[in-house]
Amino acid sequence: MGSRWGVNRTVGQIYALLFLSEKPLNADDIAETLGFSRSNVSMGLKELQSWRLVKMVHQVGDRRDYFDSPSDVWEIFRVLVEEKRKREIEPTLTLLRDTLLEPPADAAERHAQARMKDMLELIELSTAWFDEIQRLPPETLERLMRLGSKVQKVLSIAGKLSGGGKR
Fold this sequence. Notes:
The chain contains 6 helices and 3 strands; from the N terminus they run H-E-H-H-E-E-H-H-H.
């Protein structure tokens, strides 16, 4: 899954181990369990900390740093989305806005800017919608998500009954 979320395989495996572990682990435990070098584990942990997906914890009587992942899957989802937004969506919005400030030189640029404006409006609309959704308690969000799948089923059935879907 890590590679699909934009992190390398090593980082994904470190995160999976921490997520599935019953207790926080130190870097030596992680390196030994996964068969990775200590330096690869350190770099992976730094990356996961930058994503806010792991936090450092201390254990009484032990000077080593231990690492743990959030236990609430909804919190993990929110952090992932926030980080993706910060790293990918916000720079894209900035680029689109900056590009649209430039006056078009010809018809081709006017066309390209019109397309970019449409994309900018869609991304702004979806991020504003997500901001509102993100404020909902996890229970409400889960009900809303389940409702969406039920609505899709109803629409599918209605389409079949009305002869829709035939081209």
